[in-house]
Amino acid sequence: MHFRFQDPKVWAAYAGTTSLSGLDPSTVKAGIAQIITHPSYNADTADFDVAVLELASPMAFNKYIQPVCLPGAGHHFPAGKKCLISGWGEQPQKKTLQKATVELLDQVLCSSLYSYALTDRMVCAGYLEGKIDSCQGDSGGPLVCEEPSGKFFLAGIVSWGIGCAEARRPGVYARVTKLRDWILDAVSASPAFTALTLPESSSSTNSSSATTEGISNSITSTPRAFSTISSTPSTSKPVTTARPQGIVLLQWSISLTSFNGQDRHDF
């Protein structure tokens, strides 16, 4: 990540809006207190592509700002499951948050499409025929899956791909179940942390919601905030995509963001 984007002062988190301008009356804006990057992040392979952002002030849930559940380490998201992605992406004419349904793909199959470059911290979603995908400008964004309980769980974070919506080139996402323990460790290590209790697994434990206007990623917790926002703007490799996202804990906002410092980069 370029040094400029490691400075919390150049970032801000917006919630409660589906407008790219952030001018909706329901919009809540928060500064970023600190950025915690994964120590094992690999810029060449995009492995461990996640960072946690601590909000400078608490962010309360309301009608427009609701949480998504952080999955347990053993939470199973099967291949073929239909999930949702959202973002403003590479459509400058679109000023309203977009969403789309994608399908989780078999890990071995997807790895073969990318010359076996995938690691256990990655998961693919999309369609073999292409046409629907996240794209540049969506970096760090959420891949959320609804369980039978009606709760939404954060399965992935927009990370990389080749092109956008191309056949046999599905989007690649950071796999949250493999990064969950580090996320919780990063949050608990902050002086702002007071208490955070998350069940080990199950789709019936945490509360979350998504609306037709878009998805707000958050995890309930106690005072202080951590939140996830999109990955940093691209300075090179403009063809691939990483996508915007976030987890917001009540007064903790765990901000899960793709960390590749490029907007969904190519390999």
What does this structure look like?
The chain is mainly beta and 267 residues long. It has a single domain (2-191, 246-250), classed as Trypsin-like serine proteases (Thrombin, subunit H, Beta Barrel). Helices cover 7% and strands 24% of the residues. Strands 4-5-6-9-8-7 form a six-stranded antiparallel beta barrel.
Query: Structural class, from helix and strand content?
Result: mainly beta
Shape: globular
Q: What is the straight-line distance between the termini?
A: 16 Å
The radius of gyration computed from the alpha-carbon positions, rounded to a whole number of angstroms, is: 16 Å
GO biological process, one term: proteolysis
Pfam family, one: Trypsin
GO molecular function: serine-type endopeptidase activity
Domain Peptidase S1: 1-188
Topology:
Elements: E1 12-15, E2 28-37, E3 51-55, E4 82-87, E5 98-104, H1 107-113, E6 122-126, E7 142-146, E8 152-160, E9 171-175, H2 176-188, E10 210-211, E11 214-215, E12 225-227, E13 256-257
Antiparallel strand pairs: 1-2, 2-3, 3-12, 3-13, 4-5, 4-7, 5-6, 6-9, 7-8, 8-9, 10-11
Properties at a glance:
five-stranded antiparallel beta sheet, globular, 13 strands, 7% helix, 267 residues, 2 helices, serine-type endopeptidase activity, Thrombin, subunit H, mainly beta, serine protease, six-stranded antiparallel beta barrel
